[in-house]
Design a protein that fits this description.
9 helices; 2 domains; mainly alpha
């Protein structure tokens, strides 16, 4: 067994062990009569723990691809914690849907960073997710009021022009290097 396999196996054992200890302490405290949140409020801990396990595996195995499920799991869990124990209410989920593209964009960006900035192809879905999330929140939460909305409605074709120019410049620069 290689050192990496030993570290990975120990990491999984430690993670499972810590989970069992935490779960056992939680049940023990509840059985002693203390008022703790129930599993109905605490269930988002499971995606958080799964995400943490993926991130630990990503680091110990030096596999940047595991950063995506790790980041996504932690962020999804934290997002749902805001609903189960925090100030947000489920009936307003229609206003908070942009969190999901933001989470996906963040997970792609984390994978790019974990891969030491080598996979530039990850930047496209990262940027799309982050932009869709921010623009989505701008609409659902009413951030775009007054003069901003007409500028966006009329000026969005400039984004297409900018992307097209970047593609042309990149092709020209690549041709000059060859």
């Amino acid at each position: 067994m290689t050192d990496a396999e030993t570290i990975r196996r120990r990491g999984g054992t430690v993670t499972l062990g810590m989970f069992l200890v935490t779960l056992g302490v939680w049940f023990l405290i509840r059985n002693l009569g203390f008022d703790l949140p129930g599993l109905g409020e605490l269930w988002p801990i499971f995606p958080c723990l799964a995400g943490a396990a993926f991130l630990i595996s990503s680091i110990t195995s030096k596999n940047p691809d595991l950063a995506f499920p790790g980041t996504a799991g932690i962020l999804v869990g934290l997002f749902f914690f805001i609903f189960t124990v925090g100030p947000l209410e489920w009936w307003r989920m229609e206003d908070y849907w942009p969190a999901f593209p933001l989470i996906a964009g963040s997970a792609f960006a984390a994978t790019w960073v974990a891969g030491r900035f080598r996979e530039s192809g990850l930047l496209v879905p990262a940027a799309v997710g982050l932009v869709v999330g921010v623009v989505g929140f701008s609409f659902t939460l009413g951030w775009l009021e007054g003069w901003v909305m007409p500028v966006i409605e009329n000026g969005w074709p400039l984004v297409l022009v900018a992307i097209g120019l970047l593609m042309v410049l990149r092709a020209i620069v690549s041709g000059l290097r060859a």
